[in-house]
Write a structure and sequence with these properties.
Blueprint (H helix, E strand, L loop, with lengths): L4 H13 L2 H8 L3 H15 L15 H27 L5 E7 L6 H13 L3 E7 L2 H9 L5 E5 L7 E8 L3 E5 L9 E3 H5 L4 E3 L4 H12 L8 E3 L2 H9 L5 E3 L5 H6 L2 E7 L1 H4 L2 E7 L6 H22 L5
Pfam family, one: LysR_substrate
GO molecular function, one term: DNA binding
Family: Belongs to the LysR transcriptional regulatory family.
Amino acid sequence: MTIDDRRVRFLFQAWRSGSMRAAADVLEVAPSSISRQIAQLEREIGTRLIEHGQREIRLTEAGQAVIEYYRTRQASIEALRGQLLDLTTARSGHVQLALGEGFLGEALYDTLDGFMDAWPGFTLSVNVTDTPRMVQALLEDEVHFGLGFHPLSHPHIVSRFRAPVPLKAIMHVAHPLAGRTSISIAELCAQPLALMGQGFRIRQTIDIAATDAGQAVAPVLTTNSIALLIRTACARRGVTVLPEFSVGSELSSGRLVAVRIEAPQLQAVYVHLIARRNRQFSPQLTALAEQIGRRLVPAALSEARAPSD
């Protein structure tokens, strides 16, 4: 079977844009040209690739397979380009990654500095977002890989590595519970809580742990900002729940303390580096992933270990 990649590109853009007219605007061709190219591709392959008669582009199973072929091929071309750049010492390109706000800190900054020192011709885009949006960005090839907590299972997303990072109760050093080695989930829920919104995996895990223990979570502050959670704890206005590496500097300075929570769900939280299945990484991308594995996650784990653990 001979597949015309130009026609497959037209199908991909129509699917991504949602309509042939929108794809025509992106590709700067007439909508009728998009339609003709897709129809010719269907004749060459011998089956329908889109559900005809729909205003929006809806792929058949065969169409989804062709789109996956195209994306895999494009990723392979990108990987080859990276290898050739490396061999010719051009060493230029662009890396896109997504991560949760909780990873912002010295460990991440040192990791990115190390990568950019090793590959000075490369530029970086770092998108701080929540895990569901991270997964969507990976599926649409808007980012190369993501770093997040406990991502939901998806057939087209794979974890390149993972590491356990327990969630702890983060509170002011003068809080009445600050001297404890651990607290129960009931004791946690009895405190004024500052937590992430319900769209975040950390919050969802906390809610599950509380429900399983017959408790209810009623935060006095809900936000999408870890910085605001930390500020609330420092101001003695509430207790928050985060991995220790998210508050590394505050713990080191003695302003905050981290206390173990007696809930198995909060001890089984994992950090994952995730990517779209079958996406090929260039040598530079592989180098950055390895640096994260060596420097960022081990730093998180070393900070997350408490004597009571």
